[in-house]
């Protein structure tokens, strides 16, 4: 028995004997054999697989990245410490301005002289938006942060015409109504925004302008057509189901694509993982939830391919997993109601160690599906369900910052088809047997390096892996980091910013084409090796 990347579990051994890696009470677990073959690469990794998201919500924009009154801000009002942190993190693409917010947003309110911009009531989060930060501020900020923009369009109260006008405002050089307006607003060069989301979660009854799949598919088609008249090079993402529990899950995606398949490049997936309703608080189940991301990806991809087949289309859509994270605590009541304030404290989820371990698992899932998923957005980036939290005097890193930053730092080249042989498993109700070990890998042909990303879901025991290098052997070890601890509920805060922080991992030992690694219980580790000589 073998499973790719620790996804599915081993079937029971028909001889009734213990499979490799299983244990008798008290004996040390056997090493789990993992085959790595640098020739078995999936498609090249799109850097945008590990993007993020900033919505006009709570303190993400105002007081988060933009705080003109702060002595930590520059002349534009951008918080310098936050900008530095995002730049160092190397976030490749950032979705903006929503989220639910975008479905009632009029982009023209946020451009032009700041003194003339209206204060408006955002009905998605019951918050007052001063519009002091808008499209031009975001595009200038993201350029400074070294990120590409992923702009969301209002297909709730907004029209296809106003979506196309925004493309004209952003991407046409001069000589037309909207491009000349941009110039009048002091931005001479076009921004050339390439990738756009055609609305947000339009299947959700909570969404401003919620409509049926057919209505949305027709509206998205019209918007896409008009936008392509302005700029035929755009990449467009249709709104897929907003989570796997929607009664219309997959049916929505199918119907939307029946309408707009020929006009779009991708469809969106969203999902937030919950350690309460979904798991009853059972950590072993929670740490297996990334496997439901693999499942969701394959289900949505199957729908895309079904519609493609029916249309006999040569075009294969890719997937944009443009909202994903753990989120279940700050999800109701005052945590989601802005009470008509500006920059209220909303969705300020405090993340603990086990949340970070699952985020590591979710990164593994994205990696092993990177032949289909080109954009992924950790939702969100600052203050709102975020890896980075700010106050008036600084910032700190939440636990989930670390696995996310490791994906950005170590995942290069292409994902590997990692083979975990006969993984020991445990049972979780409603799921296939779950492997204790979840491994993803990348191999970078540009410099010959290899990285492995290892989640140990075992809450009690360390696990030993024996890496069997096929093709290229192991080069010199260049990094070995781990996030672990005895208290799964431990979290960071301004008072204890380093309570959960990366440690140096036990050094793997290589002998010929075999490497032995031990990972501690409750851990997420990354190992990187240079080019083999
Ligand atoms: O990220 C928070 C919210 O979650 C977004 O506004 C919405 O798209 C999703 O439901």
Q: Can you characterise this structure?
A:
The chain contains 10 helices and 27 strands. Strands 4-5-8-9-10-11-12-13 form an 8-stranded parallel β-barrel, surrounded by 5 helices. Strands 3-16-20-21-27-23-24 form a 7-stranded antiparallel beta sheet, covered by helices on one side. A 6-stranded mixed beta sheet has the order 1-17-2-22-26-25, with no helix packed on it. With 533 residues, it is of the alpha/beta class. Helix content is 23%, strand content 24%. The longest helix has 22 residues, at 290-311. α3 runs parallel beside α5 and α6 (251-260) packs parallel to α8 (290-311). Mean pLDDT is 94; it is low at 1-26.
Share of helical residues:
10-25%
What number is the mean pLDDT? 94
List segments where confidence is low: pLDDT < 50 over at least 5 consecutive residues.
Answer: 1-26
From the structure provided, what is the oligomeric state, counting identical versus distinct chains?
Answer: single chain
Number of contiguous helices: 10
Shape: globular
Structural class: alpha/beta
Which molecules other than protein and nucleic acid are bound?
alpha-L-arabinofuranose
**How much strand?**
15-25%
Report the strand count: 27
> What is the spatial order of strands in the main beta sheet?
4-5-8-9-10-11-12-13
Describe the biggest sheet?
8 strands, parallel, barrel
Distance between the termini: 32 Å
Q: What value does the Rg take, in angstroms?
A: 23 Å
Task: Note the topology.
Elements: E1 2-4, E2 32-37, E3 41-44, E4 51-53, H1 80-89, E5 93-96, E6 120-122, E7 127-129, H2 135-145, E8 148-152, H3 160-171, H4 177-184, E9 195-198, H5 213-230, E10 235-238, H6 251-260, E11 266-273, H7 283-286, H8 290-311, E12 318-326, H9 353-368, E13 373-378, E14 388-391, E15 394-397, H10 401-410, E16 414-416, E17 419-421, E18 425-426, E19 434-435, E20 437-444, E21 449-456, E22 463-470, E23 477-483, E24 503-504, E25 509-511, E26 514-519, E27 523-529
Parallel strand pairs: 2-22, 4-5, 4-13, 5-8, 8-9, 9-10, 10-11, 11-12, 12-13
Antiparallel strand pairs: 1-17, 2-17, 3-16, 6-7, 14-15, 16-20, 18-19, 20-21, 21-27, 22-26, 23-24, 23-27, 25-26
Alpha-L-arabinofuranose (AHR) is lined by residues 55, 98-100, 200-201, 242, 323, 379-380.
């Amino acid at each position: 028995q073998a499973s790719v990347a620790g996804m599915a579990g081993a079937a029971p051994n028909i001889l009734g004997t213990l499979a490799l890696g299983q244990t008798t009470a008290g004996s040390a677990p056997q090493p789990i054999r993992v085959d790595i073959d640098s020739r078995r690469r999936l498609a090249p990794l799109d850097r945008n697989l590990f993007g993020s998201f900033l919505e006009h919500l709570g303190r993400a924009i105002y007081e988060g990245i933009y705080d003109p009154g702060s002595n930590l801000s520059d002349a534009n009002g951008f918080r310098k410490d936050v900008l530095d942190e995002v730049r160092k993190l190397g976030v490749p693409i950032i979705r903006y301005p929503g989220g639910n917010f975008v479905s009632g947003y009029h982009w023209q309110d946020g451009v032009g002289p700041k003194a003339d911009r209206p204060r408006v009531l955002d009905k998605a989060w019951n918050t007052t938006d001063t519009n002091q930060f808008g499209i031009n501020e975001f595009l200038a900020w993201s350029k400074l942060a070294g990120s590409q923009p992923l702009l969301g369009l209002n297909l709730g109260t907004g029209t296809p015409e106003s979506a196309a006008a925004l493309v004209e405002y952003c991407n046409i050089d001069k000589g037309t109504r909207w491009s000349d307006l941009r110039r009048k607003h002091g931005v001479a060069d076009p921004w050339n925004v390439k990738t756009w989301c055609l609305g947000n979660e339009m299947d959700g009854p909570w969404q401003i302008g919620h409509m049926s799949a057919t209505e949305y598919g027709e509206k998205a088609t019209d918007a896409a057509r008009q936008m392509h008249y302005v700029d035929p090079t755009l990449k467009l993402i249709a709104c897929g189901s907003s989570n796997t529990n929607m009664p219309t899950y997959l049916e929505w995606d199918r119907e939307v694509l029946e309408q707009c398949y020929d006009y779009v490049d991708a469809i969106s997936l969203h999902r937030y993982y919950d350690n309460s309703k979904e798991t009853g608080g059972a950590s072993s189940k929670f740490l297996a939830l990334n496997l439901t991301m693999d499942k969701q990806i394959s289900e949505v991809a199957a729908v895309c391919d079904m519609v493609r087949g029916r249309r006999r289309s040569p075009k294969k859509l890719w997937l944009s997993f443009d909202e994903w994270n753990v989120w279940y605590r700050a999800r109701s009541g005052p945590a989601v109601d802005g009470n008509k304030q500006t920059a209220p404290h909303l969705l300020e989820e405090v993340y603990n160690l086990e949340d970070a371990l699952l985020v590591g698992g979710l990164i593994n899932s994205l990696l092993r599906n990177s032949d289909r998923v080109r954009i992924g957005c950790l939702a969100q980036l600052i203050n709102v369900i975020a890896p980075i939290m700010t106050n008036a005097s600084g910032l700190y890193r939440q636990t989930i910052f670390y696995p996310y930053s490791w994906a950005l730092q170590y995942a290069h080249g292409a994902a590997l088809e990692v083979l975990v042989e006969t993984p020991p498993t445990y049972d979780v109700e409603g799921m296939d047997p779950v492997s204790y070990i979840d491994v993803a890998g990348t191999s970078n042909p540009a410099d010959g390096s290899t990285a492995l990303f290892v989640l140990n879901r075992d809450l009690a025991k360390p696990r030993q892996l024996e890496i069997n290098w096929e093709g290229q052997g192991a080069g010199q070890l260049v990094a070995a980091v781990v996030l672990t601890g005895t208290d799964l509920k431990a979290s960071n805060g301004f008072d204890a910013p380093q309570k959960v922080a990366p440690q140096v991992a036990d050094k793997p030992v290589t002998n010929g084409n075999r490497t032995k690694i031990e990972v501690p219980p409750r851990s997420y580790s990354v190992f990187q090796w240079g080019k083999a000589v």
